[in-house]
Amino acid sequence: MRLNGETKLIGFFGSTYRTSKMYAMYNAAIQAMDLNFLYVPFAVHDLEKAVAGIRNLGVAAVGVTIPYKIDIMDYIDELDPNAKRVGAVSVVLNKDGKLIGGNTDGEGALRALQEKTSVKDRNIIILGCGGAARAIAFALNDEDCRITILNRTVSKAKELATAVDDSVPFGGYDSLPDLVTKDTILINTTPVGMANTAHEGESLVPEQLLGPDMTVMDIVSKPRETKLLQNAGKRGCTLVYGYRMLLWQGVLKFKMYTDVEPPIEVMEEAMESIK
Ligand code: ATR
């Protein structure tokens, strides 16, 4: 790794800065491509001042995650059209002193899905409507497929469906049995099933609804195989793991940070080694 006065710094703003091991994936890619960049997680104490730090220290870019994805929009200069419609930022690029926000969540999820199945003409049900769901819903709605948004709080599902496109159907989880078709793609964007939470080991989807022509994706990446994916595996569904979304987002971000074609296999290998 090259480190000198010309080294471009890429930062990470997120509450998981101590534990996130994504730096290993980026730095492995930087090294493989012999680039003069360094990726470092930052401990953000005051977001506004941290953003001023990007400007004042000439940090080249930052990856942004919980809890800063929405608040950071107040302090940067511009949003790209995707970050604008999603209303959240997962990456900030410093373009000659101008800080521009983008969002890779939706495209990352789409790539993870597409490496396993085609979304064309498919019936896709999104469970949940938080920030990640929002990004995913917009990205999928650009594709040739039909999305439906279900949520515990139906009024929020309605809000998101309307924001994406007036014709997007929405509802509560109780409508799932009526909506699932033989080859539905189901995407869980809620924290249900996440390790170290009250809902670890739970799934929002009754196992008997799952069948072998379906594709089931869980954006929860810890544990790798959530209860939903375990059940989907038993029923012969095609599985899309949350960590693949993280990988593809990393690939997309690396390209944005460096303008260099990402060494996908190197990133994949680094990610496997840090699980
Ligand atoms: P993020 O922005 O990280 O995607 P979020 O905004 O906290 O996360 O959104 C969480 C989503 O998971 C919401 O859709 C939430 O449902 P509500 O809008 O009804 O709150 C959903 N969610 C969280 N915990 C849940 C649970 N125990 N059962 C069902 N849905 C849950």
Q: Sheet bearing the most strands, described?
A: 6 strands, mixed
Q: How far apart lie the N and C ends?
A: 23 Å
Radius of gyration using CA atoms only:
19 Å
Ligand identities: 2'-monophosphoadenosine-5'-diphosphate
Cα shape: globular
Give the topology string: H per helix, E per strand.
EHEHEEHEEHEHEHEHEEHEHH
Number of helices: 10
The computed structural class is: alpha/beta
Query: What is the average of the pLDDT values?
Result: 96
Helix content: 25-40%
Number of beta-strand segments: 12
Determine the strand fraction and express it as a percent band. 15-25%
Can you tell me the residue ranges where pLDDT is under 50 for at least 5 consecutive residues? none
Strand order of the largest sheet: 2-1-3-5-6-4
Explain this structure.
- The protein is of the alpha/beta class.
- It is 36% helix and 19% strand.
- The chain contains 10 helices and 12 strands.
- The chain has helices spanning 22-32, 47-57, 81-86, 105-114, 131-141, 154-164, 176-179, 227-234, 242-258, 264-273, and strands at residues 8-13, 37-42, 61-64, 78-79, 91-95, 98-102, 123-127, 146-150, 170-171, 185-188, 215-218, 238-240.
- Helix 1 (22-32) packs antiparallel against helix 10 and helix 4 crosses helix 9 (242-258).
